[in-house]
Structure prediction request, 326 residues.
Amino acid sequence: MNVMRKLRGTTGGNANRTQASIANNAENLASTTGTNENVSLDDWLQTSLHTLKKLFSECTHPRDPLTEQESDMKVYQMLPIFCRVFCTCPAADMSEKFCDVVAFCQQVSRLMVNEIRKRASNQSIEAASIVIVKFLEIYTTEETSSGWMLLSTPNLLANSDVSLIQVMTAAAVPATLVKCLYLFFDLPSVGTDSYIGISGFSAYERRTLLQNVFVELLVRLYSDDPYPAEELARMDDLTLLFSAITPPCPNHNIVWRKKAAEILTTISQHGLTDAVVSYIHSNGCMALFADNMQRLTFGNPSEIVETFVTVFCFLKKILVKCRKYC
Prediction:
């Protein structure tokens, strides 16, 4: 299966967007919603929410037609404000406070998929994995790390209404992230660099933070609705997860194998619809797993046990589902 070809899709263009411009615009707009000693937190949130709505209106109903790059820049400008407003609000309040959240989710999902595909275009697997990770990791501050904000925003959206998960699924966000996960097995080591820098995180801490948020987003996407799992099967990407729990990889990337197992377990609990079970049978996913296990030599016996536990739990869920129809 050509993962790179599927990830690239039909999106072209230059992935080397001027990150400094995005960061400056985001920082300037975020500063307009800052607090001062005389403004309460509630007033500050209301001001931020008003700014968010104003920016979204300018993006969707501009005075003059926007180019794709101009539209993307406006979405980037909204991300830090959205995260500031809704990171402390109950997820149930999102639709009530921001009535355009579904349309906003569509814009963010489109941008995320396009940005990842651009970075996979005309690259080797290892080069693509490095470029994508560097884009998604936090480097300076949260608000000026455009890729990090583009990952954090869907993570908040996925914790809200199921309709937003369906929007992200229709835009191929879950499938795109699964392809990225498969690419990340080719990442080089982050090394032992202890330099902290402006972000306050070392290289290892940035990578760990990315791993946690990246998988948290995927788990949320596959926890509340079976549609993402069905879409993963429809796009013939579910086999990637079965391959991802048994790939040969250097020790520093074993964590990605464990993350893949976590996602597969989530699908077994919430996404085993008839279509998904049929896909697993017709595509020989279990046979693929068994074949990979025979070919693979793990350095740590406990890893073999963990992998088998994941698949056995998956099989148990399938058997329970099949018995309901017997």
